[in-house]
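Notes to self after the call with IL:
- keep both proteins in one doc
- input above output, always
- annotate only the second one for now

Protein 1:
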Amino acid sequence: MKLIETKLSGVVLLEPVVHGDHRGYFMESYTRSKLEEIGHGYDFVQDNQSLSVQAGVVRGLHYQLAPKAQTKLVRVLTGAVYDVVVDIRKGSPTYGEWIGVVLSEDNKRQIVVPKGFAHGICTLVQNTQLLYKVDEYYSPAHDRGIRWNDPALGIDWPIASPVISAKDDAQPFLADAENNFVYGEGHS
């Protein structure tokens, strides 16, 4: 498995080794010991899967407050997404900065989104299925978000007219969002 660092400390892309032939391919999509070897061992407790039937669906920017914060390991089963991660750790040298990467069934890349980061996606094609592992159970009481189009973030989404839920469209901007992540503390 190849590890690709990003400008956001702790956020990494993973490229699996894909063994292909005339029948198709085989790959290990998750091997705990291999992630531990590269310094990213997590105790994942839940898998989540979503299907977006339209291109241009934006989901996010989501996170859970500590102590129920989640690290995510995200990958695309079918289709493609523009995956966005925002640093929301107060005091971080990259606070409020974001990265965007394409995850697809073709490139088979995965992204690790640690605690202290907000996460969102934009589907690039119809019928996109996303699968992600989390290391903490979903907690409605700790569920939070940031508005996908916060002008202070300036995220360059690859869509002019997104399909978005009422909940996500009503999220606060980062400056007003409830956030208990502090750079350098154990939960981030």
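Protein 2 (the one to annotate):
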Amino acid sequence: MSNMLVTGGAGFIGTNFVHYWRREHPEDRIIVLDALTYAGVAENVEGREGVELVRGDIGDTPLVEELLRKHDIATLVHFAAESHVDRSISGPDAFLSTNIIGTHSLLKAARSVFLEGDGRPHRFHHVSTDEVFGSLEPDDPAFAETTPYSPNSPYAASKAASDHIVRAYHHTYGLEVTTSNCSNNYGPYQFPEKLIPLFLLNCLSGKPLPIYGDGMNVRDWLHVEDHCRGIEAVLGKGSIGESYCIGGGEELPNVDVIDRICRSVDAAFEENPALAERYPDAPASRGVPSETLKTYVTDRAGHDRRYAIDETKAREELGYKPLRDFDTGLEQTLSWYLSNEDWWRKLA
């Protein structure tokens, strides 16, 4: 049995990781540290066996040190971050504060307890994004661990900075760190400002589906549970000081993703006529295709054209590979949102 500190564990990916880890490692105890800002939901993890939720800021270094010592923690998995690109464009200050200063606060606490304390074996795992690598042209090779950093949004720049600080704490102080850079996640518990849950819920409520530019921006889609499996592999088999790219192997234009969402919603209404009563504003409730809600809007400032992940290193060194194809994962995601209306109604 061991104890783990998970920052941002009441957010989307953190919540799924906590649930996954408890299922796969029921002997371990998890302390979740989360500031419970707009995207953190206490009920995601509160009251779960083997999980303790602490409301607090990762920028509170003394608090983090206290948690590491009090709970005899040897593994820290760092999810906590501001992550919505649109929000970073309109208000970058919070991104620099949380993603850079907050990460440095955690590193200071980990150094104090892990290195200057009893010198216990430890791991600081930093969860990052493929957006730090910038944008790819259609024929460019996919992002790999050796791809030069070239962030294009305040969000991506703040995550790039945090990656570098984590690396520096390993090379300068000897902190035992690993980093993973993931592609676009989707799945249960995702806050409805991101593309897939936003468009799913807009289809149900009959609201427009706003598509940036020509809709041909390409992303690599990764089901959140496959991401959790990837982090598990890094924690178990990853080399100290190394980074690993974790992708879903599903490179799709945004407009293709949106079309699949529309078809999935339409199919769900055909299979379950009761949905028309629950969601009378949905076009599908009247037999009208959800795609009629599509509308094209002015492109986002600095919108990266294409992301793609080369997961060769994770596959060869860790044995990682995604288990879900996109259509299966999307169907499961839609089913979850239809079954958990009480959860998203409070947030949407």
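Annotation: The first strand starts at residue 3 and ends at 7. The chain has a mean pLDDT of 96.
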